[in-house]
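User: Continuing from earlier, I have the next pair ready.

Assistant: Great, send them over.

User: Here they are, in order.

Assistant: Folding the first of the pair now:
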Amino acid sequence: MKFKLFILFFTFSIVRILATGQQPDRIIINNKEYNLLNTPLERYFKDHPDDHPIYGSKSIRKKDGKEETIFIGSTSNYRGYIATFKIENNTLSVIDIKIQNVNSEEHEYISVFKKTLGDRKIDLNYSGILVIPIGRMLKAADFGYASLYDKYHLLTIQQDNVVKEKELNKDDFMRFKVRQFVDYKKTEDYKTEVKNYFKDWNTSKEWDLLRKNTRRMSKKEIARLKKQYECPPDEDYIDNYLFVVLNLDFVITDY
């Protein structure tokens, strides 16, 4: 499986499939700003939903007596915001959050950090491995953060504190990603993702084969569609899919 995943990661980086590339968060280290191939705030917002700049209580405004969410959707930014982090004194902190301006024709990003978080100190309680591309891009991928670079800077964070960091070339980085996925397969999160995958697959099968959705199709087209759903996906197929689309920063693996 390791070899299959290693090859597939490289292949997916070349063929550019699945979904739209995502606008990255930013991180400042030693006064230099980098792209960040993780989203550390997502787990924080899961525990503190009212602080979310799009869906939280402070992002709601009144219009004609009704509440409406201020949000501009974008396939290149599913989370709806861009956060900026900083490493200072070996500690990770968030220093800015921006969303698109709904009152601007250009829809440029504006800071909502003060509005959503105020002046209070935010403890992210983040533990995971941050991935920062520091080399040149070798292959661009139009989905997630799967573009391939020739060098990466990795930081292991425990409760917002940097406990390890190291630079990796692309080959060492790929080997690290495979080891990380192997560790992920031992978790309950993996079992949940597999269950959800099968649930979504069965839902898609039922929907696609409904009479109302096939009545305009030819017998040949219907037969082809049924053949696609003849056998459920096997473990290798699901693993390859999850390997590419999931952000496994919370799986702390040695590198």
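And the other member of the pair:
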Amino acid sequence: MYTLIKSLAAIFLMPMPLMAVTFAIGWLFRKLGLHRFGDSLIIMSMILLFLAAWAPVADSLLRPLESKYAALLTWPEEQEIKAVVVLGGGWQPNQPWSITGQLSDSSGLRLVEGLRLWLQNPEVPLLVSGNGTDSEMTMAHGYAEAAQSLGVPADRIVKLVSPKDTAEEAKAVQALLGKGAQVLLVTSASHMPRAMRYFELEGLSPVAAPTHYLAMQSESFGLAYWIPSARQLRKTERAIYELFGLLAIQWEHCS
């Protein structure tokens, strides 16, 4: 039941579904003769959509998540790192594309960042994670294939094929390396606060290696920045999803 509630909340508390529901309720109230209240809800839904798709709002929500952990520019020599861990993302294994084309934007950047760091110390294993509907064609298999095509020896790659989410990824790494293990944790910058929390709760000592930044950092913005767009809406959805994820962790460990 809890998993179902989380899934429904993740869907209906996003800007587009919330706007659509608010608009529909407003339209219904208009049909019932409550024109003023119905109009207010319809206008509210349009304002919600505008703000969610507006870059200043999207970046304000996303930037605090992405900036919590600094980029890891070089291998942390002072740490006893046991592995580089690349968390799962999205990929489309059934498409007639090259393996790099099958990886989503976030997955591709996560893997590239993981390889960049791993090449600085190739003696440690490269752990790639991710589940899939086909046990022989998981996200981990996609990562491994891409990494091998880029020159990583197969015996340096460890595939974690069972985890379905970040919490399970943390459990799988802890089961493999043991409590207290230090790992370089590679994931999207907006996802990093939640990932770090899960790994710390499992007794691991993760070192953040964020990538896949979405929020604008420049102080100079062109006209397009001030015009609402689907790209900005996706950034707002990303921020809301991660913020609710952090709240879910707190709820899980306080209840």
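Worth noting for the second one:
Residues 81-211 form a domain with the Rossmann fold fold (CATH 3.40.50.620). The chain has two domains: 2-66+226-252, 81-211.
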